[in-house]
Amino acid sequence: MRELTVKKEEAKQRFDKYLVRYLQNTGIGFIYRMLRKKNITLNGKKAKGNEVLKEGDIIRLFLSDETVYKFQNGRFEDQFPVADHMKVIFENNQILAVNKPAGMLSQKAESKDVSANEYVLGYLISSGQMTTDDFYSYRPGICNRLDRNTSGVLLAAKTLPAARLMSDLIKTHSLEKYYLTIVQGVIKTKCQVSAYIKKDPSANKVQVKPFYFDGSQKIETAYDPVISHNDLTFLRVRLITGKTHQIRAHLAYLGHPVIGDIKYGNRKLDEYYKGTYGLKHQLLHAHQIYFPKQGEIPADLSGVCIEAPLPDLFFQILKDNGLTDTLTLNSEERTRI
After folding, report:
1. Are residues 285 and 208 in the same domain?
2. Where is the RNA-binding S4 domain (predicted)?
């Protein structure tokens, strides 16, 4: 027999959904059968599965350890390494934020991959905040995704309520997301622009047009030039909608491709930066995320701005091109677009 006590962060979810997470390798039919036979009980009583769990509820599984292990086996074969090159830049008891380096996946693309998600889990284990046993009821995970070759702020939910909150904030576009990039050409004025975008999965690229076309979705992007020099512009971009490759493809469509972008950029210019600096990724950095002040936002997140410092190579390229003379990027000094 195994006894579980529902924690605060596990509460407010249906009992059957909790059991499916805990016994991941079984089916819902087996769960309901065990509930009917009282092989799984809630607070010492027979349960239907539709009950909403409360903190302190007692769950008993009258199953052998071998059976439980069978249904959990293989869930945590992953390695959870600690990444010295991925720094935690914000943390409270609900979420954490890291500064993801370019070249690192946000989440696994294949089972053998090690992504930022695994590094976050490794951090939570190594810091003593969680154990792999805790992952059976809730496994923390990345909330927003960045392209592999985009650096910057990546958010992770440490609890189930936080995951729900983050999902809602992202779905409703309630988070303000700001990026920094270096683009080809001179941009003199800030602007908000819209277009239509469509993904081509076979090519892993998107197409942007000024009008609706079959299967496309509307996108909105705002940008504000920080400084221009040497036919380059250091640009601050607000992602209003959040579609795959939106910033990169939208700016390229406008005639200002991101430096280092092999999919949408200027090949000749990108080859120069690769040869001169060893640049192997686009110069696009998720710099800031602002949380709203209104709504059901915890007090320690209301109005908070999480900010990721620029990577060294990005800053070096800025400096070498005379793009740092008027550099004022602190969240308190820059007006929001």
Report:
1. yes
2. 13-73
